[in-house]
Amino acid sequence: MAPQNVASPAFVLHFPDAVRVAGETIQGRVELDVASAQDEGIENLSVNLKGSIVTTIIETNFDGSDTKYERVIELIDIRKSLWERGTAFPDPGSHMLVLPFKFKLPRSLPPSFHLSVLHHKALISYTLEVVGSRPGLFRKDRMIRKVFPVLPAASPEQILAKKSLKKGWEGDWRTTFVERKMRPGIWGDYSHVRAEVKIPDLESFPRATALPLDLSFETRTKPMTRTAAPVDKHNKPLFPAPPTLSSDVKLFFEREASIYAEPKIGTAIDSFETHCGFGDPESSSVKSTINEAEWIPDPERKDYGVWKRSVRFETSVTLPFAPTFSTETIECKYFLNFAVSFPGIGNDLELHVPIHLDPAHACPSFAMNYADVPPEGPPPAAS
């Protein structure tokens, strides 16, 4: 009979909450009350290590019905017998047997992962199952099921990059920028806006580690006759004024996953708040520098020119998500997305920065924090 998720007082699983690293040996124990096991009719006890990738795409048909496409890839499926009735007994005066177990995780395991967007789902999960078998008609097996997170092991180079970031980055920086012409209405000359972000010049970044970033904006008004300051007669900033508050800047971490559930292929995109200070008027974690406005004269027209204004924001962002990975049925990519809205129609400025996340812990690791890895459910979505 197939095991059912029915708890039993006859046995208890001891397996501490911790992030496990691919390649390490995991250990735990089961405490069995032999007397209770006999009362419940448990004939044998086993522990199973399982891991799988499940991808699902649901397609809506013309008649409104849904067709479900699903692909399952087994990563691990190992069973170990711990006890059979009549083969082991507790010490005199005790009903308890302590049954230790251990498993060696394969080095090639992908990270734990959970995504659910509209008609696309993807799950990489790892579980321990302790099953008390109860043969007989209408008798459900007893089972304890525990899900635990797994991450790939970091290479020495990745560990070194993490140490460099933690000490304070002293290397080169990489710049990504976007430039746009815009105007507040449908007529008139164009103004100019440039946004750029600087991050450490690394090919990839360790997950769950503070990543410093430097974001700056520069705006130039449309050509105009010189004024005393970049404000109009009502003392309002001339278009387009750069954002001077970090709360005016929105920063989201975007996840893009290609999902394969033969014969269907789909792409799912979701985004999450970064909690690094941008978009939060109460935050003090972003350092801002507002430069004085500068008049740039037009070399060809006397008394004409533009006002240049610029602002710089400095902060750091921590990304506690699964490392970037690719499997037979899931390919996951990440981006940092910055957005600022300027007055007028279609004047939103967006800057997309690809981010490749690395594992951050070697194998084995003895000081990992369970909170560093997303839970089995999805992280909170951005509002």
Structural class: mainly beta
Low-confidence stretches: 1-5, 366-383
Under the CATH scheme, the architecture of the largest domain is Sandwich
- What is the H/E string? EEEHEEEEEEEHEEEEEEEEEEEEEE
Total individual domains: 2
Q: Percentage of helical residues?
A: under 10%
Q: How many helices in DSSP terms?
A: 2
What portion of the residues fall into strands of 2 or more residues? Answer: over 45%
Look at the structure and give the mean pLDDT.
88
CATH class of the largest domain: Mainly Beta
Biggest pleated sheet: 7 strands, antiparallel
CATH structural fold name of the largest domain:
Immunoglobulin-like
Q: Label the overall shape.
A: elongated
C-alpha termini separation: 45 Å
Radius of gyration: 29 Å
Counting DSSP E segments of at least 2 residues, the number of strands comes to: 24
